[in-house]
């Protein structure tokens, strides 16, 4: 391959060879010898193709795409034997073809291991889904543009490390906008889009597998780091605005966040548990629409069994942890439901999830205990009214605030089996938003809640 100015080996592998470069000779030379992933089976009757794993791929999906047997794919790839449900972006899988259903092209038949490639290859990663598109084009003779139009267009693209470095001014501290346990976040402009760029160790990439609500529109790798490029959400987090009036937004923010959590629980190919739902992980855009963020602790669970538990260490944030997370160190989707119940309580009261008790400053009080005490009171409505954030009073009918608090209470049940599913929470919050709008309309539409209709909600 004849290297162009500014092209790194990693960029060449990703851009032109679907990430399937095994190693390169003459790495510092202009003329490179590119060694591609290739091999032979003892059984000549069976063909094997290579496939580079893309974001959101599953073993079942890859097997279906290539007309392969899922168990045979698993057996041929030793990396999958420990946990077939976990695959990392960039892995190259060997996929045996069932009964030679897929006919290799002449180009494939001529390919040999350690073949020297001196001419410039045709770029095969010009679309956002080039990994899958290339395979479909190569084996099914599907036109590249037609194939791209049939695939979801919002999947992330590979971005060169050079672009990442330029956008962040070589990771200038002045560009840093956040830092967490899994890496630092920088602001930059990539391809004319404002972006939040997360830099993390490659060894941690498996822990950041499902960024689903805040849009991931690109990624890069190099220098033992993984770089994730997200849309930039400029209005900070819900925790930053918790004590602001937010007269038109609280029920809508709750609904947006609930929909985000419901999405990873019920509407993805694989089922995920976030494990760190909290107000500082809910981002707000300029229109105060909420987006769930920071999936650094997200875990995959089998969709087939709703009761499957994930054995784990204690993870999450104090004040939001469900009882079973602490007592048994196990997690289900109901753990996210519990944490969301705390978020609802914060929206209603304007108080932090965990704070010093006003009556006993040496002790900490959780919103969990506060919400439970409200609904254990003989006059729950009066007890709730005493705790409602003053900024919220008059913005919503008290009946709807009570329903929101009641939803929080059900989410905070001790027994996970007694907590609702997020889909049920979404339904209830949707009804609260509609009722609030109707209430505003009855007052002549002068309030901030009603004006939310004109902000595109």
From TrEMBL:
Xref: Gene3D superfamilies: LysM domain, Phosphorylase Kinase, domain 1, Transferase(Phosphotransferase) domain 1
Membrane topology: Single-pass membrane protein
Source domain of life: Eukaryota
GO terms for cellular component: plasma membrane
Protein location: Cell membrane
Broad class of where this protein is predominantly found: membrane
Name listed for the protein in its UniProt record: Protein kinase domain-containing protein
Family: Belongs to the protein kinase superfamily.
Biological process (GO), any one: innate immune response
Record-linked InterPro entries: CERK1/LYK3-like, Kinase-like_dom_sf, LysM_dom_sf, Prot_kinase_dom, Protein_kinase_ATP_BS, Ser/Thr_kinase_AS
Domain Protein kinase: 171-434
Example of a GO MF term: transmembrane receptor protein kinase activity
Lineage summary: Eukaryota, Viridiplantae, Streptophyta, Embryophyta, Tracheophyta
Residues the entry annotates as binding ATP: 199
């Amino acid at each position: 391959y004849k290297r162009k100015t500014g092209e790194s080996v990693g960029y060449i592998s990703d851009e032109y060879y679907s990430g399937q470069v095994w190693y390169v000779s003459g790495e510092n030379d202009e003329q490179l010898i590119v060694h591609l992933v290739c091999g032979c089976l003892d059984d000549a009757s069976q063909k094997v193709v290579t496939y580079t794993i893309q974001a959101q791929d599953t073993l079942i999906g890859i097997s279906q795409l290539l007309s392969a047997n899922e168990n045979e794919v698993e057996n041929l790839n030793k990396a999958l034997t420990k946990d077939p449900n976990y695959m990392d972006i960039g892995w190259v899988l060997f996929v045996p073809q069932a009964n030679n259903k897929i006919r290799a092209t002449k180009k494939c038949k001529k390919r040999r291991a350690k073949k020297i490639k001196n001419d410039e290859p045709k770029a095969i990663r010009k679309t956002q889904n080039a990994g899958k598109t290339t395979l479909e084009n190569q084996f099914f003779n599907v036109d590249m543009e037609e194939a791209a139009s049939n695939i979801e267009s919002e999947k992330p693209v590979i971005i060169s490390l050079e672009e990442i470095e330029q956008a962040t001014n070589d990771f200038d501290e002045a560009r840093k906008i956040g830092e967490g346990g899994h890496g630092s976040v920088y602001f930059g402009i990539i391809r004319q889009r404002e972006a939040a760029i997360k830099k993390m160790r490659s060894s941690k990439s498996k822990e950041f597998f499902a960024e689903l609500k805040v849009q991931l529109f690109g990624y890069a790798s190099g220098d033992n780091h993984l770089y994730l490029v997200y849309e930039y959400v400029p209005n900070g987090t819900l925790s930053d605005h918790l004590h602001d009036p937010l007269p038109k937004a609280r029920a809508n923010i709750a609904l947006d966040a609930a929909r985000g959590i419901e999405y990873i629980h019920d509407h993805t190919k694989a089922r995920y548990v976030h494990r760190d739902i909290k107000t500082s992980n809910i981002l707000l855009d300029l229109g105060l629409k909420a987006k769930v963020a920071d999936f650094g602790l997200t875990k995959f669970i089998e969709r087939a069994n709703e009761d499957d538990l994930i054995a784990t260490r204690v993870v999450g944030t104090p004040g939001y942890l469900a009882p079973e997370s602490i007592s048994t160190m196990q997690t289900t989707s109901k753990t996210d439901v519990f944490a969301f119940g705390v978020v609802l309580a914060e929206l209603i009261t304007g108080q932090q999830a965990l704070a010093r008790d006003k009556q006993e400053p040496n002790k900490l009080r959780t919103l969990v205990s506060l919400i439970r005490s409200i609904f254990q009171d003989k006059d729950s409505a009066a007890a709730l009214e005493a705790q409602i954030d003053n900024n919220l009073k008059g913005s919503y009918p008290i009946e709807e605030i009570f329903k929101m608090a009641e939803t929080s209470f059900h989410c905070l049940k001790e027994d996970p089996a007694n907590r609702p599913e997020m889909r049920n929470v979404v339904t209830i919050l949707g009804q609260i938003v509609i009722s609030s709008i109707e209430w505003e309309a009855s007052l002549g539409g002068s309030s901030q809640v009603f004006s939310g209709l004109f902000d595109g909600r």
